[in-house]
Amino acid sequence: MNSSVEKCYKFHESAIDLLSSIDFCDTTFKVSLFFVIFNPIFWNIVSRLEYYTHFLTKLTNNPKTGCYILAVTIFTLGIVRNYYFEQALYKQVVSQVLENEFTKSLGVILIVLGQILVITSMYQLGIIGTYCGDYFGILMKERVRAFPFNVCENPMYRGSTLSFLGFSLLQGKGAGLLITFFVHMVYEIALKFEEPFTMKIYRNPKID
Length: 208
Fold this sequence. Notes:
One of its GO terms (biological process) is phosphatidylcholine biosynthetic process. The protein is mainly alpha-helical.
């Protein structure tokens, strides 16, 4: 009983330390959260608008060119998001709970694993497959089943989340863990919209 109480007390203490280490009023922290939430909303809205109206295809007279424009935009927004995430963490104080060699080593491992998932999934899908090409009517011939898709679903999202988590642990910042939680949640919500819609596209491809 005493052991259980002690563990509960230590967990409570650790949670308080993590929360107290976060500066919620920092501007870069707020901007980082904004881009974490905004980016998936943006690419889902724009890609669906393209699917229903072909506005990028009409603008460029070529679906591939339109897809490349969207890809550059999404990639750029990702760089901006990552920049503010790093800046936000640099301005936050280190949490005593996360300030140890094991946490830092785990952070490095998670970053490496995350980047492997992201890079290999992009390699398997290509630029068009990665950046909503199916919304432009550019469909893949068959479902990709090679690594990393044979070890996990949605490796791009999983890898991105692991990278955020790893960097947060490496820096020892509680704010990073909170931002990572939002990264995970917005990806999960995005998938609720993306996966059924993608299945619909491949079941009923539009022929114009």
